[in-house]
Amino acid sequence: MRLKHFYKIVLLLIVTGFSVSCSKNGDLAPQLTVSVKTVSFEPEGGTLDSITIVANSKWSINNPASSWLQLTQTNGNGGTTVITLTALSNDTKFSRSVTLNVAADNGQARIITVTQLGKLYPSYNLTPIAPDSTGMSSNAVQLAAKMQMGMGINFGNTMESPQEADWQNSKLTESYVKYVKSLGFNSVRLPCNWVWTHLSDRSKAKIDPAWLARVKEVVGWCVANDMYVILNSHDSPNANAIKQDSVNAMQKAIWQQIATEMRDFDEHLIFAGLNEPPVEDAQQMAILNGYHETFIKAVRSTGGRNSYRVLLVQAPTTDANKAATLMKTLPTDKVPNKLMVELHDYTPSLFTIVTDGDVSWGKMIYYWGAGNHSTIEPDRNATFGEEDVVISEFQKSKERFIDNGIPVILGEYGLWRRNAIHNSNYLPLDMEKHNQSVNYWTKYVTKQAKEHGLMPFWWETGFMLDRKNNAILDQPMYDALVEAYK
């Protein structure tokens, strides 16, 4: 009878909205949960709210870092308890961390890991302002749709070179921006060098004000001509524990400066935190996500329109295959639906990039795609990385991101012809098939990217367009791009 009464009580509790967790002998099962396992603080410190502890017995927290980390409560009698953590300013150059041990009388234990960066560089968020949503109404998907109404292009080998015109025949001009717009390009990716040669005080990660103003001028020309601009930091830092603190510190410093300077531009401006960060495994991916989150927090902290700006984060090595397996989640952003993902594609690189001779891992490819292989020079035909691989990579991106409401920017893709103008040392013997291959690759990759939902940005570095004279140098290549968008 007692057993029947017990079951009746349990049933009554379930019906009335209560839940009971029991062990095999009828006692309540030990319970202890914490809502947060990891906490990170900026060097300036601050308070983190709403860490919830749920237990069915007394519990306590051991805090070895009480000199710099304060908790509103370190013990409880059970039930649900909400505590806050406050970190004092870390005025050293070194990060610090502590493991908080949460132990309950019922035998359960949990840990909370708290980290705080050091002040390797000074803060540049000196004039934060209130959030301003004016002109920032589009979420990431909506903004991507607007960008896809035209073509995308890079102003490559330009603002990311040591000095602006080092790798080009001309600096960027407003007339060139207007010319590019007239060709049908409504979106520009502006790779930019900040850390390499444009810090006026490297010890403080201070960006040269003249360079910051010059970049702003170019962005302004694009926005004034109703063009969307992706402005990046063209750095590709290693994702390893040794450099983690210094990279995060630099990310924070430069993006606070860039974001503050560019804060008044509307949604036509998109920030991209990095370029091609090398990542090979889950551990490195976690570090890369940290870089992304530092970038996001730095931009958001400046306020104004940056509070709602769409931001672009790079997939591991900007590789579609690695993105599908390693990029399980997006970095944390307190503003929902404002992130895009960036990929690059130079498949196969022996055809698109390697042009100065054979390399240890393969021979240069001159001929690519169905119907374009040469019988005159068969050892230069592509044997991998053709149409099937392009489709496979873009399909993975579509399934992982686009189908889940996350826009994908194909930030770089492109190639150039091997001819006497660009490279007279390694000329194909079958120039007709080579030219067909270049035109076909250009159209095919662009078209497949579009059909799979990606927004492609052609890597233009002076081979297709003459910047000094505002003219087309490679008409068949340009025509192939235009055809792909139809």
> How many β-strands, per DSSP?
23
Shape: globular
Beta percentage is: 15-25%
Distance between the termini: 79 Å
Q: What order do the strands of the largest sheet run in, or round the barrel if closed? A: 11-12-15-16-18-19-20-21
Q: Which consecutive residue ranges, at least 5 long each, have pLDDT under 50?
A: 1-25
Query: What class do helices, strands and sheet pairing give?
Result: alpha/beta
Helical content class: 25-40%
Q: What gyration radius follows from the Cα positions, in whole Å?
A: 27 Å
Number of helices: 11
CATH architecture of the largest domain: Alpha-Beta Barrel
Biggest sheet record = 8 strands, parallel, barrel
CATH topology of the largest domain: TIM Barrel
The total tally of domains equals 2
Look at the structure and give the CATH class of the largest domain. Answer: Alpha Beta
What is the CATH H-level superfamily of the largest domain?
Glycosidases
Arithmetic mean of pLDDT: 93
